[in-house]
Amino acid sequence: MQSVSTKPYLIRAIHEWCSDHDFTPYLVVAVRGKMQVPMEYVKNGEIVLNISYNATRNLNLGNDYVSFSARFNGVSRDITIPVGAVVSIFARENGEGMGFEYEGPTDGEQEDAPESAPASKDDGGDEPPPSRPGGGRPSLRIVK
What is the rounded distance in angstroms from the CA atom of residue 109 to the CA atom of residue 5? Predict the structure, then answer.
């Protein structure tokens, strides 16, 4: 019998905790292969996304994929992320959250990371999204 991953359940729980306490949930995603994310905001093979209800439309935190629509520089984009590519979810205000192991590409995805570009997502806030230190195991840090 195949074991069911706890990762999507933990993502939903931390997202709910952030929302209940008026924190802004951010998702750090390892971008590999042909993911449906705005590649111009990928830096060091990762993208940091604001997944609050205020910044997204039609947010679906499913067992296999996280999907939603969001505005990037005023242009609405549909985002689809495999749950296995989620590296962490945390609250912007205090840095509390959870890190995960990158689970690798699914069948049909390429392992090559895209070219890096400067990241500056327009999520309606005054601050740019926090960034993670690159390399090694995922870790969370407090962002002030």
Answer: 20
pLDDT mean for each 10 residues of the chain (144 residues): 82 95 95 86 93 94 94 92 93 92 60 38 47 54 66
pTM of the shown model? 0.70
Could you tell me how far CA 51 lies from the centroid of its own chain?
8
Total Cβ atoms within 10 A of residue 118 = 9
Answer yes or no: are the C-beta atoms of 103 and 111 closer than 8 Å.
no
Strand-pair category, 56-61 with 65-72: antiparallel
Q: List domains and CATH numbers for the chain.
A: 7-99 (2.30.30.220)
The strand pair at 25-30 and 46-50 is best described as antiparallel
Q: Give the burial string for 40-68 (b: 16+ CB within 10 Å, else e).
A: ebbbebbbbbbbbeebbeebebeeebbbb
At 126, the amino acid letter reads D
Query: Residue 139: its pLDDT value, please?
Result: 61
